[in-house]
């Protein structure tokens, strides 16, 4: 689906990915991706391993360089901006400031092991935003309550279950007040009995109106929470639409096959 005609400045998309292409040396991983995410929208990305889902997410906060196309977050260019039809790099300062607006949670819990849960959540607002400690502490405690982890505020991450660590990682990302949250297979490494507690937090965030891009293999979450499902395969968007439509009535063999393997 090509939406490249919409001028960036007039778009109400929180995230707009247009014609995104990326190769790792000779391996072309993203072959022209177009995805738009509106405020409050929850977009679930499905696709087999190796289809480029993580690479695409990492491009959105410019953890990954890309070769062609544009990405904007709230209208601000990520990585490159177009000047008189030519793609020019955005300054590192602008990229860093943009990253503050993009919260990301990964498959592997990446909490700082030598900091308490509370310190992990306070760190961004204090170090990056220069917030004073008492205010940051108040905000962090509220967010820990929201993810059901305030009782572990003084614990170290190593003492927590994987599900608890992911909930803290979500609170830590929220502490920066992002305009969009990116989730990359955040439940894939968890023991099955811990998956539900993390999905519940994500579902609540979605219900509160958070704008989210969620890469997951949890079909129940896709069906129940997504406003739109995007199926990627081989570095392209193969199908997208409301979950009740495209998951019930897939239009391509590739998506049909994927769904039948993930029942
Ligand atoms: P997915 O998240 O859908 O499983 P990825 O975006 O992780 O897919 O990977 C897409 C392809 O890019 C895979 O073939 C993977 O091996 C390759 N790839 C990912 N990261 C790198 C890298 N840093 N260097 C080289 N190849 C990579
Ligand atoms: Mg991945």
Describe this structure in words.
The chain is α/β, with parallel strands linked by helices and 263 residues long. The chain has a domain of 68 residues. 34% of the residues lie in helices and 27% in strands. The chain contains nine helices and twelve strands. The strands form three sheets. A six-stranded mixed beta sheet has the order 8-9-10-3-11-12, sandwiched between helices. Strands 2-1-4-5 form a four-stranded antiparallel beta sheet, with helices on one face. A two-stranded antiparallel sheet has the order 6-7. Strand 1 and strand 2 form a beta hairpin. Helix 3 packs parallel to helix 5, helix 4 crosses helix 5 and helix 5 runs parallel beside helix 6. The chain starts with 12 loop residues before the first strand and ends with a helix. The N terminus is likely disordered. Bound molecules: adenosine-5'-diphosphate (ADP) and magnesium ion. Adenosine-5'-diphosphate binds next to strand 2 and helix 1. One of its GO terms (molecular function) is ATP hydrolysis activity. It is a peripheral membrane protein.
